[in-house]
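Technical annex, item 7. During the second reporting period the consortium partners agreed on a shared format for inverse folding records so that results from different sites could be compared directly. Each record opens with the tokenized structure and is followed by the designed sequence. A conforming record, contributed by the partner at site C, is shown below for reference.
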């Protein structure tokens, strides 16, 4: 079946009949909502996702209604379980770290929001979707790659690439002219921008733009400082089944509940802070302050269970593929065939990643101090320094070493060996 793909540029007034807007109820998306109504003259459907960002969502509904959105066009969904089960956990099976450090908290949320927008567009007969990402960042790419992967003929409106409201002052002026209510504490210039969900919070911009200046303690919202953390270590036990955490200290929990509990433990012990200068997909470098308390613990725990259940070749192959997987998530290619192919391989590797990991949490550090599994590949008989009762013949190592040394010896004989 052939599909005609629409050009994703500015659309003429009247060319859009109904649009699904990713809506938070904040200044930017409230202005976007009104701007869509006045600039495109189209019907607007709002979608607000509860991703565990820790904010009350009721005001977003009230503001949408105030701006003329009919109740049947307001969608507010609690997607926390779906977020952790279908996006966070699969990513953590891969041990994904972008540029060796970033646990991809913002990146992994975007495909879920965009997926739900497309679903709502189908439900309501909308012919367009809209996001509030700027033209400088990664999120515009993540949203739109997902839109097109799931509905190739969808029309996309990206206000920050179209309108003339290029400053906070202009946004506030537009809000006042159009009687969009703005809370008093939101009228001043925000010192930095924040994005949050159940996995993490990220802070960027303004006072954080100079990479030489240390972030003030007020920037951190999900963690206490390691210096202020308790002087006594906290020990916890995490159970895994096929690579996914299923229980903490013996108590079975849902995916979202597990991450919530790990967030609480991480916060109390000052775990999960990251000050990072990263390479955006669009080409520039940016500095961000990330807090991923529960994710940092989960990442360490997952590596702990893999250490005794994954064969060396499988584990090393996973480590080789991980940067590519992480880059795909960061760049917005969650629904790409290559990510899906890698996911199949990763999930295959997790079939025996079942067992228990004990961790020590102390002043910003997460340390694996115990691990056990009914599928363990660790053999005490083979590694013991005591009498192994003939399990391992140490004389076998001589031939193993000589075979591996053969090419090195031939090089030394024929070419004079390495240059020293």
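Designed sequence (site C submission):
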């Amino acid at each position: 079946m052939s599909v005609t793909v629409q050009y994703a540029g500015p659309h003429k007034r009247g060319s859009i009949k109904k649009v699904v807007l990713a809506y938070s109820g904040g200044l930017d998306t409230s202005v976007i909502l009104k701007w869509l109504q006045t600039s495109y003259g189209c019907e607007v459907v709002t979608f607000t996702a509860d991703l565990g960002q820790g904010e009350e969502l009721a005001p977003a509904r009230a503001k949408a209604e105030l701006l003329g959105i009919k109740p049947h066009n307001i969608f507010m969904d609690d997607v926390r379980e779906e977020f952790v089960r279908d996006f966070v956990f699969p990513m953590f099976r891969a041990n994904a770290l972008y540029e060796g450090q970033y646990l991809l908290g913002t990146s992994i949320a975007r495909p879920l929001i965009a997926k739900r927008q497309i679903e709502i567009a189908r439900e309501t007969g909308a012919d367009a979707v809209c996001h509030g990402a700027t033209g400088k960042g990664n999120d515009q790419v993540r949203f739109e790659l997902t839109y097109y992967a799931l509905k190739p003929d969808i029309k996309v409106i990206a206000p920050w690439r179209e309108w003339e409201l290029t400053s906070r002052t202009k946004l506030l002026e537009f809000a006042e002219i159009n009687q969009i209510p703005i809370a008093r504490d939101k009228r001043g210039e925000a010192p930095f921008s924040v994005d949050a969900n159940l996995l993490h919070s990220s802070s960027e911009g303004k006072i954080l733009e100079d990479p030489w200046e240390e972030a003030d303690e007020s920037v951190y919202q999900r963690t206490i400082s390691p210096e202020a953390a308790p002087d006594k270590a906290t020990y916890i036990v995490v159970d895994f089944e096929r690579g996914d955490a299923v229980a903490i200290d013996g108590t079975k929990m849902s995916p979202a509940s597990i991450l919530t509990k790990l967030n609480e433990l991480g916060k109390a012990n000052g775990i999960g802070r990251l000050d990072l200068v990263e390479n955006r997909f669009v080409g520039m470098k940016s500095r961000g302050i990330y807090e991923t308390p529960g994710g940092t613990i989960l990442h360490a725990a997952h590596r702990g269970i893999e250490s005794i259940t994954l064969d060396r070749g499988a584990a090393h192959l996973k480590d080789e593929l991980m940067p590519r997987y992480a880059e795909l998530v960061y760049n917005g290619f969650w629904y790409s065939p290559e990510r899906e192919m890698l996911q199949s391989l990763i999930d295959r590797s997790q079939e025996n990643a079942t067992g228990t990991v004990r961790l020590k949490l102390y002043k910003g550090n997460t340390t694996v101090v115990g691990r056990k599994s009914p599928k363990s590949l660790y053999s005490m008989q083979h590694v013991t320094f005591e009498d192994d009762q003939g399990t391992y013949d140490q004389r076998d190592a001589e031939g193993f070493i000589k075979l591996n040394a053969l090419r090195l010896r031939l090089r030394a004989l024929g070419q004079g060996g390495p240059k020293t």
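Residues 1-8 have pLDDT under 50 and may be disordered. The longest strand covers residues 43-50. All partners now use this format for quarterly exchanges.
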